From TrEMBL:
Subcellular location: Membrane
Chief location: membrane
Transmembrane segments annotated in the record for this chain: 412-445, 457-482, 550-571, 583-603, 642-662, 752-775
Protein's membrane topology: Multi-pass membrane protein
Keywords, in A-Z order: Hydrogen ion transport, Ion transport, Membrane, Transmembrane, Transmembrane helix, Transport
InterPro entries: V-ATPase_116kDa_su, V-type_ATPase_116kDa_su_euka
Protein name: V-type proton ATPase subunit a
GO cellular component: fungal-type vacuole membrane; vacuolar proton-transporting V-type ATPase, V0 domain
Record's function text: Essential component of the vacuolar proton pump (V-ATPase), a multimeric enzyme that catalyzes the translocation of protons across the membranes. Required for assembly and activity of the V-ATPase.
Keyword match Hydrolase: no
Domain of life: Eukaryota
Biological processes, Gene Ontology terms: vacuolar acidification
Organism: Piromyces finnis
Length: 823
């Protein structure tokens, strides 16, 4: 086997470092098995089809009628779902990985017929129930009217005075009208009915004005709401019984017309009490009968909906799968006896796809005359990174910034380590890290059960559970480096390294200031920050300096690492021009200035400045450019510093024109004999290759050079956020401890102290979780995200690719389940 074949074989092996090798393939599928083949491809989920009918409108494509048929079935399924929701039936728990398929002689046509029969029966049940509900509502309204009118008339007869004061009664100034009692039917006509409560007062005013006050109006509230709900907001409808007494048929006709306008219902109420009682008995008897029938109708309807609910999810999936199959087939070209499809497939999966299709066709006892050929194309290839439950969230962090170009180095591989590490630098605390780690560990252990929780915020936390787990683990490590646990130092190793000298005299409480004698200092603290510093008076000054310089060193290392990664991209794509014209000058420029700054920080740390005056590194960096080759004696860090700094400045200055000019002119020489680009394929503009244009390349290179040179300063300064957030996190943690727990420990009475510790600990723990873990954790997460997206990725990551989106039933089912949750 030749070395070239070995290299090709290694490229085909899946790796998280680079995206999968993709091939453009062509399928020849006989018409009679086309749908089954495409369904099997959807089950495999490894083919991204290309639209070969871009010039046709949606209505001109072959399988429009089949898609409309699926749309009609989905409408019926949405109708079922709305009816189930209205009945508040409990959801049926199902396996999230369940993937139903047509079995035996089942087809979309048989399923459509089955669903149609269920719809007809359900519509008939709804119609019967609606009719029964209307009858029931009318009887209830009639019962309320009879009861309220009888109460009102009986009460009026009992009082014997039609002018009785009532807040629901309108005063009638017509003296001739008031001479009659309400039950005097000789000159009065009684009209009674039901109206919605929110319309009573408007109805009252209109009737008063229309009849010019020649009426007696009374309304009584009905306590129970109507069984029907408002069509506007779904709220219960409350009603009032109204009673109107007027003279003459003409006024009665006016009232009826006003009642029609207000949707008020008038019921016939007899004047005779015995007749009213008889009618009431009849209404109660009919109500009892209709209630039984109504309950039976509802039970039958609920049983029918429960039967539908058992298969509803499976039907939805089957219909959506069928619809998506026809949608993909609309992308194919139709020949006489076959369909021609083209698309992208991972090269190492072509044989697997062939064998899977052949096996499926044999099981169905169908001819397996499906031809799959690789085809040359100039289309830009999609990016396909294989992920698992651990790497998926890290890949999402990178993809949110930009999809990697085809076969470009995948930053997600390095993000697995660098992202939680940078987060931990800002969040470093042993106690907080343990809490975060344990919370994420529980979610990881119980992930199968917790995956079923339907909550948007928790779903975000669940999808990033492994990121949070690593963030907690790294925070524990940096907490040991800072030697902080809930803002308190730990003395894990010997603390007898210092010899202390008293300074001054003791204060009123007997405390005295002490200073460490460096001349008698013994061994350094083995790991992490010496606890002596964390209790010192100048702790903040020391930690400020330490964390600020540490942030710069880590930031420079991170950026140089990103710059070095770019050479692996250039080497992979065999781009010597980019190696010489981009990587080398960028690396020299970065190391000459910022790498040198990191070196001087470490050198200054490693030098014993006892009795001396350490130089300011900030002034050194400024003077390095303002007065190159000159270093004052009291500012000198090491011998020969002026010469080295002069050489570094010259190298940095040389790199600027090198970055600007080499690549555009080298590419111009390379492409000077190129023929005009001819594309014989129907390719979307965004996926078509671009011709070399010197002007565009020179402008892009100029912008890139300016951006890289200036961003070196801004990006280095941006890493100071590591220092700022770390300092803020430590100070917040210390404030919470001093303001709460210290107060509890200071109580002299042991009983009070014990009670206070329990009570105050709860408040301290709640604030720790809410402020330090959640709010500060989110802040550190966002800052770590920015450092990766801007400062790190910009050094080597183009991110101008497009994602491989295969035709996959698994993704369709997942999307369908998400839709059903929102609905």
């Amino acid at each position: 086997m030749t070395s070239k074949e070995n290299e090709h074989k290694e490229d085909l092996e899946s790796s998280f470092l680079r995206s999968e090798v993709m091939s453009y393939v062509q399928f020849y599928i006989p018409n009679e098995i086309a749908k089954h083949v495409v369904s099997e491809i959807g089950e495999i989920g490894l083919v991204q089809f290309v639209d070969l009918n871009r010039n046709l409108s949606a209505f001109q494509k072959v399988y429009v009628q089949e898609i409309r048929k699926c749309d009609e079935i989905e409408r019926e399924l949405r109708f079922f779902r709305s009816q189930i929701k209205n009945e508040n039936l409990p959801p049926i728990k199902r396996d999230i990985n369940h993937n139903p398929k047509f079995t035996g002689n089942e087809t979309i046509d048989t399923l459509k017929e089955k669903i149609k029969q269920h719809e007809i029966k359900l519509i008939e049940s709804n119609a019967n129930q609606n009719n029964m509900n209307k009858s029931y509502v009318q009887l209830i309204q009639l019962k309320n009217v009879l009861e309220k009118v009888d109460e009102y008339l009986t009460d009026s007869n009992y009082k014997g005075d039609s002018q009785k004061s009532d807040e629901n009664q309108i005063e009638i100034p017509d003296s001739t009208l008031l001479e009659h009692t309400p039950n005097s039917t000789k000159n009065f006509r009684l009209i009674a009915g039901v109206i919605e409560r929110n319309k009573v007062y408007s109805f009252q005013k209109i009737v008063w004005r229309a009849l010019r006050g020649n009426l007696l109006f009374h309304h009584i509230e009905v306590e129970e709401p109507n069984i029907e709900k408002s069509t506007d907001d779904g709220e219960p409808i409350y009603e009032d019984v109204f009673i109107i007494m007027v003279h003459g048929a003409e006024l009665v006709n006016k009232i009826k017309r006003i009642c029609d306008a207000f949707n008020a219902v008038i019921y016939d109420v007899p004047d005779d009490k015995d007749t009213r009682n008889k009618n009431m008995q009849d209404v109660n008897s009919r109500l009892s009968d209709i209630k039984k029938v109504l309950d039976q109708t509802r039970r039958t309807r609920v049983d029918q909906l429960s039967e539908i609910q058992k298969d509803l999810n499976d039907w939805s999936i089957l219909v959506r799968k069928e619809k998506s199959v026809y949608g993909q087939m609309n992308l194919f070209k139709n020949e006489q006896q076959s369909l021609i499809a083209e698309g992208w497939v991972p090269t190492n999966k072509i044989d697997e796809i062939r064998s899977t299709i052949s096996r499926a066709m044999e099981e169905r006892k169908m001819p397996t005359s499906v031809v799959i050929n690789e085809k040359e194309t100039v289309r830009l290839k999609p990016t396909y990174n294989i992920t698992n439950k651990f790497t998926k969230c890290f890949q999402s962090i990178v993809d949110s910034y930009g999809i990697a170009s085809y076969r470009e180095i995948n930053p997600a591989l390095y993000t697995i380590i660098t992202f939680p590490f940078l987060f931990a630098i800002m969040f470093g605390d042993i106690g907080h890290g343990i809490l975060m780690f344990l919370a994420a560990l529980v979610i990881c252990i119980k992930e199968k059960q917790l995956a079923l929780i339907d909550n948007e915020i928790f779903s975000m936390l669940f999808s990033g559970r492994y990121v949070v787990l690593l963030m907690g683990a790294f925070s524990i490590y940096t907490g040991f480096v800072y030697n902080e646990m809930f803002a308190k130092p730990l003395s894990l190793f010997s603390t007898k390294n210092w010899v202390w000298e008293n300074q001054g005299t003791p204060d009123e409480e007997g405390f005295i200031n002490q200073s460490g004698d460096l001349s008698q200092f013994k061994n350094a603290y083995p790991f992490g920050m010496d606890p002596a510093w964390l209790d010192a008076e100048n702790k903040l000054i020391f930690m400020n300096s330490y964390k600020m310089k540490m942030s710069v060193v880590i930031g420079v290392i991170h950026m140089i690492f990103g710059t070095i990664l770019s050479v692996f991209n250039f080497a992979h794509f065999r781009s010597a021009i980019n190696i010489v014209g981009v990587f080398i000058p960028e690396l020299i420029f970065m190391i000459s200035i910022f790498g040198y700054l990191a070196f001087t920080i470490v050198y200054k740390w490693c030098t014993d400045w006892t009795g001396g005056n350490p130089p300011s590194l900030l002034n050194m960096l400024i003077n390095m450019f303002l007065s190159p080759g000159n270093v004052e004696e009291d500012e000198q860090l090491y011998s020969g510093q002026a010469t080295i700094q002069l050489i570094l400045v010259l190298l940095a200055v040389i790199c600027i024109p090198w970055l600007l000019l080499y690549k555009p002119f080298a590419l111009k020489m390379k492409h000077k004999n190129d023929k005009p680009l001819e594309i014989n394929e129907d390719i979307e503009e965004e996926y078509a290759p671009k011709e070399f244009n010197f002007s565009d390349e020179f402008i892009n290179r100029a912008v890139g050079t300016i951006e890289y040179c200036l961003s070196g300063i801004s990006h280095t300064a941006s890493y100071l956020r590591l220092w700022a957030l770390s300092l803020a996190h430590g100070q917040l943690s210390e404030v919470l401890w001093n303001m709460l727990l210290d107060m509890a420990f200071n109580f002299e009475n042991p009983v009070v102290r014990t009670i206070a510790i329990f009570a105050i600990f709860a408040a301290w723990f709640t604030l720790t979780v809410a402020i330090l873990l959640l709010m500060e954790g989110l802040s550190a997460f966002l800052h770590a995200l920015r450092l990766h997206w801007v400062e790190f990725n910009s050094k080597f990551f183009a991110g101008v690719g497009y994602k491989f989106t295969p035709f996959s039933f698994r993704k369709i089912i997942k999307r369908l389940r998400e839709e059903s949750k929102t609905n």
